[in-house]
């Protein structure tokens, strides 16, 4: 009888690769969710800053008209 180890490969590495692919896909989806949330927050902040800027410009125009 020979005491040679079985060859590496077979079903076990394939299952490990599928698990790694699944974990990678889950991590990717988590990153997409985080980026979507961050993008929504940035858009909200941008709209708020644009509103504040417009209001300040309006106040400045009124003040300039009063001075003239």
Number of helices: 1
Low-confidence stretches: none
Quaternary structure of the protein: single chain
Major sheet description: none
Structural class: mainly alpha
Number of strands: 0
Shape: rod-shaped
The Cα radius of gyration reads 30 Å
Beta-strand content estimate: under 5%
Helix content: over 70%
- The average pLDDT is 84
SSE series: H
Outline of the structure:
The chain has 68 residues and is mostly helical. The chain has 1 helix and no strands. Helices cover 84% and strands 0% of the residues.
What does this structure look like?
- With 68 residues, the protein is an all-alpha fold.
- It has a domain at 30-68.
- The protein is 84% helix and 0% strand.
- It is rod-shaped and about 100 Å long.
- It starts with 10 loop residues before the first helix and ends with a helix.
What labels describe this entry?
mainly alpha, about 70 residues, single chain
Task: Note the topology.
Layout: H1 11-67
């Amino acid at each position: 009888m020979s005491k040679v180890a079985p060859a590496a490969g077979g079903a076990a590495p394939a299952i490990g690769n599928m698990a790694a692919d699944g974990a990678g896909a889950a991590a990717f989806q988590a990153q997409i969710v985080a980026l979507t949330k961050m993008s929504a927050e940035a858009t909200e902040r941008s709209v708020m800053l644009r509103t504040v800027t417009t209001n300040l410009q309006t106040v400045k125009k009124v003040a300039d008209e009063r001075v003239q």
